[in-house]
Specification:
By secondary structure, the chain is α+β, with helices and mostly antiparallel strands. The protein contains 10 helices and 15 strands. Strand 9 and strand 10 form a beta hairpin.
Length: 306
Amino acid sequence: MDQSNITLERMRTFIRVAERGNLSAVARELGTGQSTITRHLRELEEAVGASLLNRTTRRVALTEEGTRYYSQCVQILRLVEQACEEIRDVSNAHSGTIRVSCTAALGVLHITRLIFAFQARYPNIRIDLGLTDERIDLVKEGVDIALRLGPLTDSSMKLHHLGQSARLLVAAPAYLTAHGRPETPVELMAHNVIRMSNIAGSETLVLTGPDGTPHAIPAKGDLRVDHGLAAREAFRAGRGIGPAHRWLVDDLLASGELEPLLSDHSLPTTPLNMLIVPARAKVARVRLLIDYLVEQAARLPGIGSD
């Protein structure tokens, strides 16, 4: 086993073939011949002592060993990239790139605005902002920090709790005029409830009364959505009632386009957390953004500390 053949160039070739599944496509992308790609892969497999790819006439697919090795290669190359970035930026902590992931609706309505203000303060810092409600592998995707709503289970990341996101029931005046205003939790059963298909438990409205009495009301309706912004528009259009994060609808409540319902009852709050890749936590520019977002998150509508 000649491990001198395990080079960064061969790792990069292997990663691109694994991702594209086609040798000729990778050869064109890298500006080299397919025979060179084949040689790199063969030498890499000989060096690691395992078959990494299954090859057919039409496609290349990872073996079980290749899948594990691919994840390790991605992390190794990311660490190399980070090391180079840190050396380049050591003389100026206020430059370089920060990769951020954020829950989609929160990102569109609030975090983008905060990012704009941060870059106005530090114009040489570049931000790569990805908006998704999916739970992604931060290291594999090259993300430095992520803002997430809901409970988290990834213990390999540094976690900073930003607060609890308050929720409330809302509806448009037009809907209430047409269908009446519910005055008790039981009356919610007669209403069209906008539900979230990607949130566990959205088939039930859970409320706590002013005396602490819990109420679990079946949520029935003709519309389910998988995005907070879609729910916001459905409420706004008078399609139904439903629970919403305060930050999602605060401006619509202020303008009168939506109204709060059963204000003497409360809904469970949702934790808002920041995940930080441990290897990136001490990078100066990343630390600047972390501290900034911690400060600003407390000012978002409906976000309160425990």
